What we know:
Elements: H1 6-9, H2 15-21, H3 29-44, E1 47-55, H4 82-94, E2 99-103, H5 113-124, E3 129-133, H6 139-148, E4 152-154, H7 162-168, H8 177-189, E5 194-198, H9 206-223, E6 228-232, H10 251-264, E7 269-272, H11 278-284, E8 291-293, H12 322-331, E9 335-337, H13 350-353
Parallel strand pairs: 1-2, 1-8, 1-9, 2-3, 3-4, 4-5, 5-6, 6-7, 7-8
Helix pairs in contact: 2-10, 3-10, 4-5, 5-6
Bound molecules: iron/sulfur cluster.
Amino acid sequence: MxxxxxxxxxxxxxxxxxxxxxxxxxxxxxxxxxxxxxVTLRRFGRTMTLYAPxxxxxxxxxxxxxxxxxxxxxxxxxxxxxxxIEKELIAMKKLGISDVLLLxxxxxxxxxxxxxxxxxxxxxxxxxxxxxxAFPMSVEEYRELALGGCTGITIxxxxxxxxxxxxxxxxxxxxxxxxRLETPARALEAGIKTVGLGVLLGLSEPVEDAxxxxxxxxxxxxxxxxxxxxxxxxxxxxxxxxxxPPFSIDDHFLARMIFAFRIALxxxxxxxxxxxxxxxxxxxxxxxITRMSIESRTTVGGYHDTSHNEKGQFDVYDNRTAKEFxxxxxxxxxEPVFKNWEPVYxxxxxxxxx
Length: 354
Ligand code: SF4
């Protein structure tokens, strides 16, 4: 594949979203917020599902210009060993967390597929739900992960602008735009139940990236209609390499994007991480966002063992404890949900065996 697929570029099915996101949009932010709030309430009630990330390793062979783990960043590198993972998971469980996202950098000899699979199996023995944000894999590898207890993967395209993608991904396997674009479909083909998509806001012109992200979601949900798809809205945060993004995304645009996605994709879980400020996160709860991370550490481990001083992938903004965050939700009459999943469902979906 050398040119962008038609499903990604066709404007035909994204006119409603385009109208809501246009700089000269006739939809006021207040009107979008009211509609988004009503849709959220109708489809999800007053609930917020909560998860936490666990960085397994900060080894990486890629050179993404915007990332604190890029292979040219000066920081010590390490990975968690099985006993350490157990301890980190126990510490997370003490905070109330039962839904974990395991993260690594790009595939390396120190943290490759076999290592990741072993980590998934350990986490599946401890947590109700295990998802992975790591390197693109083959269908066979995703099938093994699903059998090991992984129910979801997160794989952001970062930007759908090919020229910018080429410049930002300076070296390493992540340079392959099309391989990454096809990764969510491979995971769903293999029986992974949910895929998380997103763009890193600030890397490219945001409206065009948002429209292509939306078309990607539509394309996958039509092809894999049983799949769960989530959309995240990460904005660039300061990282150890000091990268400055070319586009500045203000709160007003991000709120508009969240409301527009909620209206255009009423059944899709929308996710907001601790990259955002407490005030912004509290404001978006109930208005469109239905899933949030809590207690995030962006260094390797960090829940049990806090003695290491390597740099994180990026700076966390909302540093509230799980208890503080849940109190803030409850003040808004929103119920924090730590578990809405039984591990008995953790095998691959029927797509894998079909
Ligand atoms: S974004 Fe991922 S692949 Fe790129 S440098 Fe960071 S950890 Fe590596």
